[in-house]
Design a protein that fits this description.
There is one protein chain. The protein is globular. By secondary structure, the chain is an alpha+beta fold. Helix 9 packs across helix 11, helix 9 packs antiparallel against helix 14 and helix 14 packs antiparallel against helix 15. The chain is about 35% helix and about 20% strand.
Length: about 450
């Protein structure tokens, strides 16, 4: 429980934007993952960097844990309050501070969502390409180094965050990076904080790289007899340097789920969902090259369209795939994996993973951002059934071991959070000790999101 003096100090400058209500605290202790609710003692709703600094300073003076909160859509227990403390909900920091179309960048507060930003800049011919699917905040996306369906062409948050304003654990405010397109000035602090999962500081402003809306956008869908055929088509497409914008894999189980959930009528076999960006001639050429490549691997029923309604229907279904998979077993939770491997090893990694899942008693739809070697299995488990959790964790461990042996990573986009701490150690070895030293230097009392990424 918070000391009365801490709560009084917070209320003094935030007023009714501090809450200790059970329902609000519980909501802020549960993300989209299977991990149990671990609620903070209080939730604060600041509106500015200055107010965040005041909250952090009060907490730092009293050694109170701080947990940053964006939209609560993370999948690895990032927002669980393991030691209680104060949750800083940044959802009221929603100002789009500046858009500089001539430089193709902008400055936003962390509570702005990708969809809000895109609607704001659309009439200037610009868009922000990082698209995790859920309605995430840009601050949360930067904190977890998010990516999504467009990463194969436009990169991840790592490549698209130019600079940050950060409140450190002692209340100091720093700015990192610049709006210049390159710099050799000192350590790259921006990249240090992108992906730090709230453990080094709180992001209160972001400078983001924007991109021009393509002249033509075309979506396509193609089916395959097997997942291996689909993945081999992906590998051939990447190796042929086709500048594809999106190339998403769904196995027959996930296709069945989206058919039911999104009212589609796709054949219940593996599919690739694709998107091509460019001029009319370039998009046509990309589609033709891909169509020919897919035929070499038994691709069938290739359909593509530039109609916005068709594109929207396809990608809404893909973005809702997580919830579609959960609906296959009502009342369950998704223990979601996200390994990433070099593209040349993707088919082998998926085939061995699929075999593991098929030999298990668990239902595990497989889908992924195949264009960058990142895929997921969503194990549908009863969170109250310890044997199901244990089996899902066993299968997850095998996936990670396999990915690391192939030169890959334990997480392509979800981050470490609470759920993958042991895998970080397996991947980086003594490098984790260096991470601990950085954490200790910036947060010596371990108040910034303690217990995430690194053990308590």
């Amino acid at each position: 429980m918070l000391k009365d003096k801490v709560l009084q100090s917070l209320v003094l400058f935030l007023g009714d934007r501090v809450s200790t209500a059970s329902a609000i605290c519980t909501r802020h202790g549960q993300d989209e993952s299977w991990h149990p609710v671990m609620a903070p003692d209080a939730v604060c709703f600041p509106k500015s960097t200055d107010e965040v600094t005041k909250v952090v300073s009060v907490c730092a003076s009293n050694n109170v844990p701080i947990i940053p909160f964006g939209a609560g859509t993370s999948l690895e227990g990032h927002i669980a309050a393991l030691k209680g403390g104060v949750c800083i909900d940044l959802s009221k920091m929603t100002e789009i501070i500046a858009v500089r179309s001539e430089d193709m960048d902008c400055t936003v507060q962390p509570g702005v969502t990708r969809d809000q930003l895109d609607k704001y800049i659309r009439d200037q011919g610009l868009f922000f390409p990082i698209d995790p699917g859920a309605e995430c905040t840009l601050g949360g996306m930067a904190a977890t180094r998010a990516s999504g369906t467009n990463a194969v062409r436009y990169g991840t948050m790592r490549e698209n965050v130019l600079g940050l304003t950060v409140v450190l654990a002692d209340g100091r405010i720093i700015t990192t990076g610049s709006r210049a397109r390159k710099s050799a000035a000192g350590y790259d602090l921006t990249r240090l904080f992108v992906g730090s999962e709230g453990g080094l500081g709180i992001l209160t402003e972001l400078v983001l790289r924007l991109h021009s809306i393509p002249e033509v956008i075309s979506s396509a869908v193609v089916s395959f007899p097997t997942v291996e055929d689909a993945v081999n088509t992906v590998i051939a497409t990447i190796q042929a340097a086709v500048p594809i914008a999106r190339i998403e894999l769904m196995d027959e189980v996930s296709i069945d789920a989206v058919n039911r959930y999104s009212k589609l009528s796709l054949p219940v076999i593996p599919h690739l969902f694709l998107e091509f960006h460019g001029t009319q001639a370039a998009v046509k050429e990309q589609a033709e090259i891909f169509s020919n490549l897919s035929k070499e691997f038994s691709g069938q029923d290739f359909q593509w369209s530039v109609e916005p309604e068709e594109r929207s229907k396809l990608w809404v279904a893909r973005h809702n795939a997580y919830y579609a998979c959960l609906a296959l077993r009502p009342g369950c939770k998704g223990l979601t994996t996200d390994v990433c491997v070099p593209i040349s090893r993707l088919a082998e990694c998926i085939a061995k993973t699929r075999l593991d899942v098929d030999q298990s008693h668990l239902l595990g739809p497989l889908l992924g951002h195949a264009g960058d070697g990142n895929f997921h299995v969503i194990f549908l488990v009863d969170p109250e059934n310890r044997s199901e959790i244990k089996e899902a964790e066993r299968l997850h461990d095998r996936m990670v071991e396999r990915a690391l042996a192939m030169g890959g990573t334990c997480t392509g986009e979800h981050g470490i959070g609470l759920g993958k701490i042991k895998h970080l150690q397996a991947e980086h070895g003594d490098g984790v000790d260096i991470m601990r030293r950085i954490k200790s230097a910036l947060d010596p009392h371990n108040i910034m999101n303690p217990g995430k990424m690194l053990p308590l």
